Amino acid sequence: MSTETDTTDFEFDESAVRRKRRLGKAFLGLCVAATMVGIVALVALLVDVIVEAWGWLTWEFLTYPPSQVVEHYNPANYGDLPTGPGGMYPMIVGSIYLIVMTAVFTLVLGVGAAIYLEEYAPDNTLTRFIEANITNLAGVPSIVYGLLGLAVFVRALQTGQSLIAGALTLTLLILPIVIVSSQESLRAVPDSMRQASYGAGATKWQTIRNVVLPEAIPGIMTGIILALSRAIGETAPILMVGAATTMFAPPQLTDPTGPFGAMPMQIFEWAKLPEDEFQHVAAAGIVVLLTILLLMNAVAIYIRNRYDPRS
Amino acid sequence: MTANGGGPRTVSTSESSRSGSEFESDRSVSDEAPLGGPDASETILESRDLDVFYGDEQALQSISMEIPEQQVTALIGPSGCGKSTFLRSINRMNDLIDVARVEGDLRFHGKNVYDEDVDPVALRRKIGMVFQKPNPFPKSIFENVAYGLRVQGKDDGDVEGKVRTALERAALLDEVEDQLDSSGLDLSGGQQQRLCIARAIAPDPEVILMDEPASALDPVATSKIEDLVEELAEEYTVVIVTHNMQQAARISDKTAVFLTGGRLVEFDNTNKIFENPENERVEDYITGKFG
C-alpha cells in the first residue's frame, strides 16, 4: 500500500520484521534439508543397487531357476553352460502367488472388519477398545506375526510350511493397517450421502452397497495395495513360517499347501554367500523386487485417480 | 412479506387443481370445506404430545399438530427451535442419531410411525425428503433420479419414463435433457437441489419433507424452488422448514411457529399467522423483533 498520508505515526520497524524473516528462512532451510536427507539417501541406495545389478539383470534372470554356481548367473557365460543360466523365476512366481492370496484374504477380512466397525458397530467402550487395539497391532514387529503364524497356522492348523501359511501370516501382518485405512476411507464418505440414501427409502445394506462403498473404494483399494507392497518385501514373517530359501521349481499353483519361496528370501540367501559375484546377483534380485513394488504403487495411484468419482 | 391480497391464498394453488375430483379418491377435498381453514383438507400427519430428546436434552416439547394433505405446511422459527428435529421425526431420520429418543405419537394416516411394527425404511418410501444442502450422489443425473426407484424395487417398468417425469415435475428436464448421463455434481447448486427434489418425487411418495431446501441457494434459484414447492402441493403433501419468513408467507398454506425450547407456539393458516397472530411472541418474531 502506498503511504501518501503522514507516515510518522506508522513505524517501519524493519529490524524486527527482518529478524522474524530470517527465522522463517532458517526454518525453511531446515525443512528442505530434512526432505533432502531422505531423497538423497534413497537415490544413493537406488543408484548403488542399479549399478551393482547392471549387466546381471537379464531376461534369463527372470525366467530361469536359481543355481548354486555363481558363474551361471553371469550373462557372459550363458553360451557355454551345461544346464542353462541361473535366475529367480520360482521366487518371482512364489512372491506373486503369495501376494495374490494375501490380497484376497485381506480384502475380505480387512474391508469386512472396517465396514462392521465403521457402519454397524455401536459407538461404545468395547468398540473403541477394539479400534484402539487394532491401531496398536499395526505397530507390532513383523517377526512377532511370523511366530504367531508358525504357532497358529503351521503347527495348530497343520498347514505345514506352505504357501497358505505364508499368505495367512502376511494377511495378519497387514490386516490392522488395512482395517484402519479402510475405516478412514469409509469415514470420509460425507454423512449427507448416507442421509440422502436413507431419505430415498434405502435400507442400511443398500446404502452401504450403492452409496458408501462406491465412494470409499478408491481409498480402500489404495490402502490395500500400499499394504500389500509392504507385505511383498517382508522377509521375517515368511522366514518364521518356513519359506524355502531356494526353490528350483515354482510352487504348484493348484496346491496352496505346498512349499513356497519368495523374492526377499532368495535375495537374503544370495547376499549371504561368500563369492563377490553373488552381490551382483542379489542386487539384480533387489531391482526386480523394487520394480514390482513400484508397479504396485503405481497401480494404487492409478486406481485412486481413475475411480475417484469426484475428479 | 408479499401481499396476498387478503384472501386465502390456498385458492390459487390447491383448489383449482382439485375441483372436480372430490370424493373420488382419498386425497380429494370437499368443495364445501372452508378454504384454507382447519378442515380444508384431510389430515395426513398428526403429532400428539411428541417429545424428542437428544441424550438428556429435550429438543421438542409436547408437539401436537395436524398436517393437512396436499397442502404446504411451513415450519418456521429461530435457529435451534426444533423445527428441523420435528421434520426429521416425521420420517424417522432421527433414528440414525444414536442418542435421539422419541416419546409420544406421530401418526401417518392414523398409524403411529413409532409403533414397533413400523419399518422406518418402508415409512421413508412413503415420505420423501429433501435436505438443506443439495446432496446428489456422485452418479449420473439419470441414476440420481432413479436411485429411489432402484432401492425401492420400482425399477422394473419404465424407469426412463419415470425419471423424465420426475425431472419434468422438478422443472429440471429442459435444462438437463441432453446430459442425463453426466454427473449430478456438475450441475449448479440450484439445479442440484432440483435434482434432489426429482430424486425425492421419482418413487411417488405421499409426503415430501424439505429441510430449508433453498437456504444454500442464490435468490434466482430460491425463487425457482419456491415455485416448484407450490406446484408440488398439487399432488403431494409438503412440509417445509424455513427460517425465511417471507418464504413461508409466499409458499405455504399453513404455518407452524416454533420458538426456543422446542415448543410449538402457534399453528394456523399462513394468512392468520402473518396478519393476525394470537401469540405476542409470534408477532414479535414475525415482525423481526427477535430471532
TrEMBL record, chain A:
Start and end residues of each ABC transmembrane type-1 domain: 92-299
The keyword Transmembrane appears for this protein: yes
Location relative to the cell: Cell membrane
Organism from which the protein derives: Halobiforma nitratireducens JCM 10879
TM region positions: 27-51, 96-117, 137-157, 163-180, 211-232, 281-303
Official protein name in the record: Phosphate transport system permease protein PstA
Classification via Gene3D superfamilies: MetI-like (1.10.3720.10)
Topology of this chain in the membrane: Multi-pass membrane protein
CDD domains assigned: TM_PBP2
Cellular-component GO terms for this entry: plasma membrane
Similarity field: Belongs to the binding-protein-dependent transport system permease family. CysTW subfamily.
From TrEMBL, chain B:
Keyword presence, Membrane: yes
InterPro entries hit by this protein: AAA+_ATPase, ABC_transporter-like_ATP-bd, ABC_transporter-like_CS, P-loop_NTPase, PstB-like
Region described as Disordered: spans on this chain: 1-42
Entries under NCBIfam families matching the protein: 3a0107s01c2
GO biological process: phosphate ion transmembrane transport
Gene3D superfamilies: P-loop containing nucleotide triphosphate hydrolases
Tree of life domain: Archaea
Domain ABC transporter: from-to ranges: 45-286
One Gene Ontology term, aspect cellular component: membrane
Protein name as annotated: Phosphate ABC transporter ATP-binding protein
Top-level taxonomy: Archaea, Methanobacteriati, Methanobacteriota, Stenosarchaea group, Halobacteria
Membrane in keyword set: yes
GO-annotated molecular function: ATP binding; ATP hydrolysis activity; phosphate transmembrane transporter activity
Sorted UniProt keywords: ATP-binding, Cell membrane, Membrane, Nucleotide-binding, Transport
Start-end of Low complexity biased regions: 9-22
